[in-house]
Specification:
- The protein is an all-alpha fold.
- 51% of the residues lie in helices and 0% in strands.
- Helix 4 runs antiparallel to helix 5.
- The two termini are 33 Å apart.
Length: 198
Amino acid sequence: MNIEGLDYNTQRERLIMPEYGREIQKMVDYAVELPTKEERQQCAETIIGVMQRMFPQNGTPENHNQKLWDHLALMSDFKLDIDYPCDVSQALKITDKPEPMPYPMKDIPVRHYGYMMFEVFEKLKSMPESPERDELARITANQMKRCLYQWSHGSADDEKVISDLARFTDGVIQLDPETFVFEKMNERDFVEKKKRKK
């Protein structure tokens, strides 16, 4: 559909710094075209004043001013011939994308329990029978149930938790489904928390 006078941002020229909006970019383009250096200088300082009002100072004044003048240089594609009050030669570093962070991928049978739970399973396997091991098994089972609630839209089966705990501890931890009591958990809390995250 092509309506005269109606255009979309997707059809317009891409903004170098979208956070300042199209009007500031138009002001910068206008400043670049001005015939005299004095006019360009005055216009650039006016633009910086508007940019300062849009993004009030955070950090030291020197750093803030440096950032604004760097942004102006970038938006003009370094074509704005003025006397910059600071060195803008390093402005291109702003546009450099950071190197991707390495994410430690651990090989675990199921992701919904998380890697730390598998470390606990290993600990449980090596612990001798004791009240400490029983308490750790109780805490672990309840945490597994919370994990299931979070990852399976609010449903967690006690028997599945008991079965998984036995499986991932190589049969060392065998909870009795007749006697073991899980902590009370409200399914609604987990479902609502998940909705809030979206």
